[in-house]
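re the bet — no i am not wrong, look at it urself. input seq straight from the record:
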Amino acid sequence: MPIIDDHQLAVWREILQLCKVQTGENLIVLTGETSHPKNIDLAMRASAAMGAHLCRIDVPPVVGGGAFGQRSDVAATPISGHRMVIDTLKRADMVLDLVGLLHSPEQLEILAAGTRMLMIIEPPDVLARLTTNADDKHRVLAAARQLRAAKVMHVSSDAGTDLTMPVGQFPIASQWGYADEPGHWDHWPSAFVSTWPTENLSHGRLVIDEGDMMFPFKSYVQSKIVLDITDGFITSIQGGFDAKYLRKHLESFNDPNAFGISHVGWGLHPKASWGALGLRDKVQSHGMDSRSFMGNFLFSTGPNSEAGGSNHSRCHIDIPMADCSVSLDGVPITDHGEVLPSNTGSTHA
């Protein structure tokens, strides 16, 4: 066995230990057509080495139309309507999701049963580079406490962003890169905190600047995009080619809710890199460097239904922005893309 393989296996075992996988627990590895073959191998071997009662469920790809003829990654998943699979996953102590069940009622149902769930879709080298630990969890939970206590999030930038978003209607989503609590969902690798703004109250302007990123396009913005936001919805998209492409993407869903605001928050991963996206082919990475790098403001569009909201759009765009200043109830949290020292502690607050 090559040394690099030994190292990767050790990383997986470390993550499973952080997930508190115990001897005799029921663990399911969920796989599909897009699952990375090496991740399947490592997930199975590491889980077996932990002494878990292990099985693999492989599901066929979902069939459904999304923007520009592509499959939508929201709402419809490979297990939609498959009661046998859903009920089996609910009986597991832990699920390693190598498929991606994001933004789906099936995922919420599985978590409500107390199952721990960890989504893993990045390639092995990214997983190994962006492992997290207890310090990262403490940092994320400290940020979550700040966000939970807030009534208003405000975001500004030198590029022209001036956006006010009342918060508090919906729960806080905290990701620290491993699933160690019953009913907790997480994503390896990640470290950030977010919430969904109170419905129909956000207003102002968001300027997506050169060097910011958009997903699922997996690209850096080359020209400024100016979004005007009224009553929680994007009402105007101005700019050059990038603005046109974003507008056409949203319009292709034929759904006014595609223009709504989804989750917003900021990145807290000290190992994640703003520049990583430019060094990989688009199919190689889900983009968790971009979503998690320390101090980014993550703005997204589309559904809030997973938090209990009324927006069920199948269009979801994540937009990590590099140089924004975020405040909660007037208290600065980040300054021009830098998390302030008082918010970077690595121990319990």
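see?? The mean pLDDT is 93. told u. also The two ends are 43 Å apart (CA to CA). so pay up
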